[in-house]
Amino acid sequence: MQPAVKQPGDQGAGDASQTANSGLRTLFLTPTAALLLALLGAPLAIVLAYTFRTRGTYGGVTAPWTLENWQRLADSLYAGILFNSFAVAAVSTAICLLLGFPLALFISRAGRRRGLYLHLVILPFWTSFLVRTYAWMFLLRDTGLINTVLFKLGLISQPLPLLYNYGAVLLGLVYTYLPFMVLPVYATLERMDRTLLEAAADLGARPLQVLWRVVLPLSKPGLWAGSILVFIPCLGAFLIPDLLGGGKTILVGTLVQNQFTASRDWPFGSALSMALMGVVLLLMLPLTRKSASL
Amino acid sequence: MSEAKKEKMNRRTLLLGVAGAAACGGRRLRLNVLNWSVYIPPEVLRQFERESGIHLRYSVYESNEEMLARVMSGNSGWDVVFPTHYYVQPMREMGLLARLDTRRLKHLDNLEASFSRPVWDSQLEWCIPYMWGATGILYNDRLAPAPTGWSDLWLDRYQGRFTMLDDPVEVFGAALKTLGRPWNGQSESDLRAAKVQALRQKPLLRAYMNAEVRDQVVSGDVAAAQLWATTAQQAIDAAPHLRFAYPKEGFGLYADNAAVLRESRRLDLALRFIDFLLRADVNASIVRGCRTATANGAARVLLGTELNALPTLYPAQETLARGEWMATPTVGLQRLRDRLWTELKSA
C-alpha cells in the first residue's frame, strides 16, 4: 500500500544533499515557526496562565493563583455538556463520512466535469458562514420556503417544526463542514492507482467488493483527515447550535463563549477551552500518527 | 557638500515635509466614540462633524460585556462610551470613568426631571442619561387572547409560538415576577426559585433569542416574544399588526448613559460631543431616526404629538410606575446565577 501514496523524491537523494537540504529547510521553516510561536504559542500560554487565576468581578483575572477552575471541570453539569458536545460532533462527523465518501468517489470518477463539481463543493465558501446559516433559518422556519411549499402542495396542514431542535443543529453542522470531508477524501481517491482496481477486477472481485476491499482501505488517509477536519470545528461550534438550536441546548462552544461574555468568568472559560483542547489532542494523537503512517 | 548630495537632501526634506503634512492632516481634532448599534443616525454624526470640525471615529457594540471587554485595559483609545445604568457603578469602581464637569454642559437642563437625579448617579458626576427602555412582550394582534403579563408566557396556550430573551437577567427577572417577587430579586432563594420557574417554561417556548427574533415576529413565525421596547418599536414600524405589552406584574427598566473614559485625553471634545447630544433639536432627530425613548425632556417637547403615536416607547406614567430599574448583579451571587442558567440551558 505504501508506494501508492508516496511522493517521488520524499526519500531525498544522497547524504550530502540531505545536509544541504536540512540547512535550507531550517531557513525556510524559521519564519513560519517564529510566527506560530509568537501568534499561537504566546496567546496559548496566556490562556493557560489565566486558568490558574481568580475571576475579576467584572471580567478579566486577578490574584490569587488557584486550582479551583480546574476542579470545577469535574462538576457533572459541565462534564455532561462536554459529553453532549462530543456526541453531537461525532454524529455530525459520521453523517459527513456517509455523505462525503460517495460524493468524493462520484467526483473523482466524473471525468471532464470534475473541476465543475469541485467548484460546486467549494462554492458555499464564497459567502459568509453567518449569512449561510441565516439562509437555513429562512428555509426551515414556519413561514420558510420548505413549510410554505409543503403547505401549498397540501401535504401538511400545520407547519413542521424544522427549526430550533437537535436535527436543525446537526443539519447546520453537516452542511457547513461537509466540504472539509469531501476535499481530502477526493484528494486520496484522485491519487489512487487505477491499475489496482483493474487488478482487483481481473482477479474476480465484483464492483462492490472492489469498493469495500480496495477503494475504501486505500482512501483511509483521506477519511481520517476529513474526519479530524470535521470533528474538531463541530466540537467548538457555538454559532450554529445557538442560531439553529434556538439557545435551548448548551454545547461546550457556547459554554466557553458565555464565560467570556455574560458570565464574565475568564479563568473558568480558559480552563474549559484548555481542557477541550487537551481532550481533542489526546484523541487525535493516535489518529494523526495513523494517518501519517498510511 | 556636493550639489548632488544637497539636491538629495532637499528631496528628502521635501518627502519628510509631505509626510509631516499628511500627519498633520490626521492630527486634526478627533474623538473616538463607542456606542450601541443603531443609537445615533449617521446624519447626526455628520452634523456634529460639520458643526464642530471634530472628526469622529465611531464604532458600535452589541452588549455591555463586549464594550467592557474592549475598554477594560484602560488603554483602548476610546473616549466616549454608553454603558447601561447598572454598569456605571462597576465601571466607576474599576476606575474606568472620568468625572464630568457638568458646568460645561450648557444643555444639561434639557434632561427630563426624572433623569436629572438618577439613582445610579444622583449628581450626574460620571454619566449623562441618554436613552432608556423596558423589557416587555411584543405580540401579534391576531393572538387571542392577547398576553397581558409574564404569567401568560407560562401557559400552554402559546406553546411553541413564543420566545424569551437569551439572557439570565431577563428570563429570571420575568420568572420572579410571575412568582410575585421583585424583578431584581437577588437572594439565593430568589435565584433558585427563578430557575425552577424558568425550567417549567422551557418546554413551552420556541427558543431563547435576542434582537434577531424581530424578523420572525414580523413574518409571523413567532407570535409573542420577550423583547426590549426599542427593538419592539422597530418591529412595529415594519408590521403595524404588532403590539407591545408592558406586563401587568411589572418589568425591568434600563437606561443607557453617555460617559467619558478616564484614559481619554480629549475630555474637552468629549464634553462638547455630549453637550451636542443633549441639544433638543439634535436629540429629537436621534429619536426620529433610531426610534428610541429619550431621557431628554426638551426633545420630547419638540416631538410632542409624534411621540403620542408611540405608546411602545413612551407609555403612560402609571404604566411606567410598574417598572423596576434593573440592579447591578450582586457580585457574590454571579457564579450561582451562571450555574443555574447553564443548568436551565442544558436541561
Describe what this molecule looks like in 3D.
- The complex is a heterodimer of chains A (about 290) and B (about 350).
- By secondary structure, chain A is an all-alpha fold.
- Chain A has a domain at about 85-250: MetI-like fold (Orthogonal Bundle).
- Chain A is built from 14 helices and 2 strands, in the order H-H-E-E-H-H-H-H-H-H-H-H-H-H-H-H.
- Chain B folds into 2 domains: about 5-130 and about 255-310, D-Maltodextrin-Binding Protein, domain 2 (3-Layer(aba) Sandwich); about 135-255 and about 315-345, 3-Layer(aba) Sandwich (D-Maltodextrin-Binding Protein, domain 2), CATH 3.40.190.
- Chain B is of the alpha/beta class and about 350 residues long.
- Helices cover about 45% and strands about 15% of the residues of chain B.
- At the A-B interface, helix 4 and helix 13 of A face helix 3, helix 4, strand 6 and helix 15 of B.
* Number of E strands of chain B: 11
* Number of domain units of chain B: 2
How many distinct helices of chain B? 15
As a percent range, the share of helical residues of chain B equals 40-55%
CATH first level of the largest domain in chain B: which class?
Alpha Beta
- What is the typical, i.e. mean, pLDDT of chain A? 86
* Backbone structural class of chain A: mainly alpha
Q: CATH homologous superfamily of the largest domain in chain B?
A: Periplasmic binding protein-like II
Structural class by secondary-structure content of chain B: alpha/beta
Interface with most residues:
A-B, 32 and 36 residues
The biggest beta sheet of chain B, please? 9 strands, mixed
* Percentage of residues in strands of chain B: 15-25%
What's the SSE blueprint?
The complex is a heterodimer of chains A (294) and B (347).
Chain A: H1 2-5, H2 15-50, E1 54-55, E2 61-62, H3 68-72, H4 76-108, H5 114-122, H6 129-140, H7 145-152, H8 166-191, H9 194-202, H10 207-218, H11 220-236, H12 239-245, H13 252-260, H14 266-293
Antiparallel strand pairs in A: 1-2
Chain B: H1 3-26, E1 30-36, H2 42-52, E2 55-61, H3 64-71, E3 80-81, H4 85-93, H5 113-116, E4 128-140, E5 162-164, H6 168-178, H7 188-201, E6 207-208, H8 213-219, E7 224-228, H9 229-238, E8 242-245, E9 251-260, H10 267-278, H11 280-290, E10 293-294, H12 297-303, H13 305-308, H14 317-320, E11 323-325, H15 334-346
Parallel strand pairs in B: 1-2, 5-6, 5-7, 9-11
Antiparallel strand pairs in B: 3-9, 4-7, 4-8, 4-9, 4-10
Helix pairs in contact in B: 6-7, 7-15, 8-9, 11-12
